[in-house]
Write a structure and sequence with these properties.
Order of helices and strands: HHEEHEHHEHHH
Number of strands: 4
Structural class: mainly alpha
Largest sheet: 2 strands, antiparallel
């Protein structure tokens, strides 16, 4: 049982490390809060085990994406995450722009003067970006899902044979459900 426990713990560490690497490669690491929030917890008993992953407060939204509100079924709002289990509220009053100032500063996004036109304000630019995100949604990054699936395929055949293939498949299906 000790070897089984060690293998599960190695598996969870590989999933976490691969998830973090995926975030780095996708430039999703705007701040370190998501990166540092990826953790796992395991519990073992005589006949069973439990393995869970935590992605912090918003990691699941980044991984699976968020459906846009698509007001009035407008064709101008192309959905970035049509299959996501998460969705923005449909009312325009629910557009939240509170976190966009910091994000815009980190990304270097600021209003510009265009020759012959009145410059747009920071507040207006923030609202327009927020409205676009609200309408189109957030594209899924699958940083965790791909890491989990990759490392699951790499689990040793001996471990799968000892524990039983059916139980591991059920575990994977349960773990990946929203």
């Amino acid at each position: 049982m000790k070897e089984f426990q060690k293998e599960i713990e190695r598996f969870s560490k590989r999933v976490i490390n691969t998830s973090k690497e995926n975030l780095r490669q996708q430039n999703k690491r705007v701040t370190s809060s998501l990166y540092n929030s990826i953790k796992s917890q395991s519990k073992f008993s005589k006949n069973s085990f439990e393995l869970s992953f935590s992605l912090g407060g918003y990691g699941e939204f980044v991984d699976k994406g968020v459906k846009g509100a698509n007001p009035n079924g407008s064709p101008r709002w192309r959905q970035k995450a049509p299959d996501s289990p998460f969705k923005f509220k449909s009312s325009k009053s629910s557009i939240n722009t509170s976190g966009l100032d910091r994000w815009m500063k980190i990304k270097g996004i600021k209003p510009r003067n265009i020759k012959g036109k009145k410059p747009i304000s920071q507040k207006s630019l923030r609202y327009l970006i927020g409205r676009s995100i609200h309408g189109q949604g957030i594209k899924p990054s699958l940083f965790f899902t791909k890491a989990f699936e990759k490392e699951y395929k790499n689990l040793s055949g001996e471990l799968i044979n000892k524990f039983g293939l059916m139980a591991v498949d059920e575990f994977m299906n349960f773990s990946l459900k929203p």
